[in-house]
């Protein structure tokens, strides 16, 4: 491929909304240079990691792969990169995970084939390719160049960017490609079992919010979604001043069976009707939500705030509670707390008073901020709606 051809393809990739994380090991190093040398790389590349040693790969994958250079390892790297891209991307942006692992020419002769495996993962597709090169026909730099061009082609295809690539493989060299498509049900199933960490339904039509990285999140079961939820998030957003407002529903519950795919889709429809973005996750605990959405402001009720700062909910371990809350604070998370109507009485719990009751150190007090009662009070609950409607 000519430099001009490469630049044209990379410019098209940078012009599309897809944001990517790349995990590359054992080759395709020139692909990073191709992506980063063209203006607009920050639109595409969220992160690039080169796990080049066994220990680095082990820590990246969280397990010892049966074979470091294999199709399965490339798929696992792509899935891991996809989940990482979800966490780093703008809310609702299409994301791409890229995995590459190769065994190319080196300073020492290799007993096996010179080969590489590359994989891409998007919300609805897993693609993987295995390429076996003619041993001894190219030097390392040339093998790296071939693998880099094929990786760039794979990224372009995943971004749905039209690109013409002339094959640099000889007739004796083999390329085995496989593709698996996912529908919405399959993606939600993958979420529920923990393969992917969350799925965003960007129903909001406010394009001004698209570039906001900080999220303002109202979590709940939303069974059903009601005006109190909508008003609370609206008020919280005005208090925060900036951020992307979104609802978050965990398909996995700490005390109940997980939602079915059908139940999850039914609840998602509620947000589509009102044009509000919702994130479906598989984390029922706030400290886990904080790890998924670092730097976010979580909108919670006073009853939830009381549980967050009560050692009872941390196995009675005060130190564990403080460690978890400090970890949430250290990754930039805050809590906006609104009052609730409980048994006909409006409960507006003073956060400072609650903190003093549980003797919480000063170090985490500034994580909590009250939503003034004159700005919002929730006199309705989903449980009351279900009760009134015999649900």
TrEMBL record:
- Pfam families associated with the record: CTP_transf_like (PF01467)
Q: Where is the Cytidyltransferase-like domain?
A: 218-387
Superkingdom to which the source organism belongs: Eukaryota
Supply one GO CC term from the record: cytoplasm
GO MF terms here are:
ATP hydrolysis activity; nicotinamide-nucleotide adenylyltransferase activity
User: Signal sequence: where?
Assistant: none
PANTHER family given for it?
NICOTINAMIDE MONONUCLEOTIDE ADENYLYLTRANSFERASE
**Listed name of the protein:** Cytidyltransferase-like domain-containing protein
